[in-house]
Amino acid sequence: MKITIKDIAKISGVSTTTVSQILNNKGQRFSDETRRRVLKAVEEYDYNPDYFAKNMINRESKTIGMIVPDVTDLFFSKVIEGVEAYLTKKDYMILLCNSNHSHEMEKDYIKQLLNRSVAGILLASPNSLELETSLKSPYILIDRGLNTRTEGNLLVKEYDGSYESVQYLINLGHRKIGMLTNESGYYEMSERYEAYCQCLKDNNISYNETYLEDGPVTIEGGYQAAKRVLARTDITALCCGNDQMAIGAYRAAYESGLHIPNDLSIIGFDNLEISEYLNPPLTTVAQPAFEIGYTAASYLFQSINQPEAKVPNKTFGTKFIVRGSTSLVDKI
Amino acid sequence: MKITIKDIAKISGVSTTTVSQILNNKGQRFSDETRRRVLKAVEEYDYNPDYFAKNMINRESKTIGMIVPDVTDLFFSKVIEGVEAYLTKKDYMILLCNSNHSHEMEKDYIKQLLNRSVAGILLASPNSLELETSLKSPYILIDRGLNTRTEGNLLVKEYDGSYESVQYLINLGHRKIGMLTNESGYYEMSERYEAYCQCLKDNNISYNETYLEDGPVTIEGGYQAAKRVLARTDITALCCGNDQMAIGAYRAAYESGLHIPNDLSIIGFDNLEISEYLNPPLTTVAQPAFEIGYTAASYLFQSINQPEAKVPNKTFGTKFIVRGSTSLVDKI
DNA sequence: CTGAAAGCGCTTACAG
DNA sequence: CTGAAAGCGCTTACAG
Q1: What band does A299 get if pLDDT is binned at 50, 70 and 90?
Q2: Residue A179: strand pairing partners
Q3: What architecture does CATH give domain A5-58?
Q4: What is the CATH number of domain A63-156+289-316?
Q5: 79-98 in B: which are within 8 Å (CB) of A?
Q6: Terminus-to-terminus CA distance in chain B, angstroms?
Q7: Which residue in B77, B96, B98 is closest to A72 by CB distance?
Q8: What is the distance in angstroms measured between the alpha-carbon CA of A54 and the sugar C1' of C8?
Q9: CA distance A38 to A45
Q10: Among A188, A314, B61, B70, which one is least packed by beta carbons within 10 Å?
Q11: What is the pTM of this model?
């Protein structure tokens, strides 16, 4: 049987009011003697106020929900790490939901989280989300462009980052530049794709549809997509939707007998820790995953504690990192 | 203002008892008419029973806590995925804690989780843990050998897996076999190390301390450790504590001008998705991370619902996977 | 400086 | 078939 505040009150010979006030550092000053007696009993019996009873009154669950499309995705796991790092300091805990890229699951999770009275929600999903407006608890959107909200959005300069990488390839002399993207209309992917198109245009390079391939944003997805595009084209460079896809593209290139970067230049997006260790190290567009998570958590925290205040938006810059997977074009 | 059961009762003209019973499918049969009225009001006002009030009575938080040493670790994120996959089906949610390999943090988190009345705890930590016995909620230990508990342990045949990989190298003619391990006495690492020693012994190969290196079980850790051991020895093969370390070792090898596998054979442990995509693909010892998580969750669930029943232990086998990072020894 | 009592939003014997 | 009342374990005006 769990020990309750009544037990502590009885043991230390005071009322529950007193115990409660002392434990919460509230109310009037109590005599040192009383305080000591109560604290001693608490200590001795290892009393902890019941979480549910306490919350029924305080409504401070100190819990937030976080929904990600894939926990094993290296980008998102880094974001989670950032979120956790911030929230732990504040004694908050995070209810983690893995939506498996499913929009249905996301909606389900949001409902469940709301039922659990979480203090706020962190939604790291690239999907557009119509039910946003019905969300009555504070929330922050990570990496989301497709929404009508004007505050609490954390974005990354997907477009600029992607543009820069394509321009880099063009400057190296590449003209036949492929791109691996994602079919399902993910916001970031669209941005990166748009930048690709625009950059070609700005450089008077004609757009070639066969240079494009779709696939899941995973290693395997990148492998399959790259395989297809390499089989039917003679591209000299390939922009991958993200680093994971680039990793898959490496293998596709090897299997096609292509040497990176001599025969094929490859560029990723994310700058995962692992990308630096690939062979050759991957040229990529860095985005600050940990910082994104950390900032998202801090904004949410702020939004929970000052519901009236407007939550700022934030756009993170990217950084283009040249490594060994890109080189001057080698063939015409 | 949140809508309560009283509101629903008033709106549908019945008592709160009736509303509660209908919503929980309990008690006696109610007239269809009453049921319809109540359900309609619930629907219309989007009523959801308060999580805390409900739990104060039912004590079914349907929440478990999970502690991992590192969310960004590819092995653990896969385990999390498995846990999530099982628990979601059961309408449970998981409170995720990232201990950063810190034993102190683990203890803190356990305390916090207990205070929150989680239904159970999943502890994925390679640390030994003295306070286990004081854990009064159901729990399952993942990947833990150093404990005195006789049930609810999920283990992997670390020793056998490691032994097999070392023996494989020896069969290829290797005699100068290095090993990258972890200093902090992690159970799995010790097992793998013990197997390494025993296998050498069984093959009458003398143990050479300089072939050993310690490091964090990360890519960077593997890189640094491999760099050190390659700088001072002429090993022809290297067993890495896990795949992440192996990835780091790849780069160390390249920087030392060594070709894998011709100059240096490398073996990992885990079989991460990425390992197959490395260049060359990594020979490694596979362990079923997703399945481990999934099983752990199912055992915990069982243990929550039948507290008296003994929770089984389970030991997962490993599978040795030969890929391109190992070859016959090339130099004497 | 301290306590009796009301109340948070539910569920559940119990009575009718 | 349905409701009044007690109770879960807390906190908080309020009164003294």
Answers
A1: very high
A2: A212, A239
A3: Orthogonal Bundle (1.10)
A4: 3.40.50.2300
A5: 80-81, 84-85, 88, 91, 93-98
A6: 79
A7: B77
A8: 9
A9: 11
A10: A314
A11: 0.93
